[in-house]
Every structure is written in structure tokens, then in C-alpha cells.
From TrEMBL:
High-level lineage: Eukaryota, Viridiplantae, Streptophyta, Embryophyta, Tracheophyta
Domain of life of the source: Eukaryota
Originating organism: Oryza sativa subsp. japonica (Rice)
Official protein name in the record: Os07g0174766 protein
């Protein structure tokens, strides 16, 4: 309803102009982000002991 009111005033939200992405694209992106997050956390987990031995880890 709010979007219709804005459209009547000549103000249309950018998101109202384009349809949402296909579900498979959303799922693919979520999987990509989770894989990247997992790799990052694994890197932190494996590099933390090495960095603490070198005196570089700041807690």
C-alpha cells in the first residue's frame, strides 16, 4: 500500500521496479557465502596456534 502511495506521488522505490532474484540464485549465493565463511574460519583456526607461538596473537 505504501509503494502504491509513493508511485502516485511519482516516487517509486528501486526495489519495487525489479523483481526478486530467482530462488536458485539466492540459494547459490547463500551456499557461496557459507563456503567462504567456513574456509575463513578454518584458516583462522589453523593459523591462530602458529601465530601465538610466534608471539603475534593479540588477545
Amino acid at each position: 500500500m505504501e509503494t502504491a502511495g509513493r508511485a502516485a506521488k511519482g516516487v517509486v522505490l528501486r526495489t519495487a521496479l525489479r523483481p526478486p532474484p530467482p530462488l536458485d540464485a539466492v540459494i547459490t549465493r547463500v551456499v557461496q557465502l557459507r563456503v567462504a565463511e567456513t574456509k575463513h574460519l578454518e584458516h583462522l583456526r589453523t593459523s591462530a596456534p602458529r601465530m601465538s607461538r610466534q608471539g603475534q596473537l593479540i588477545c
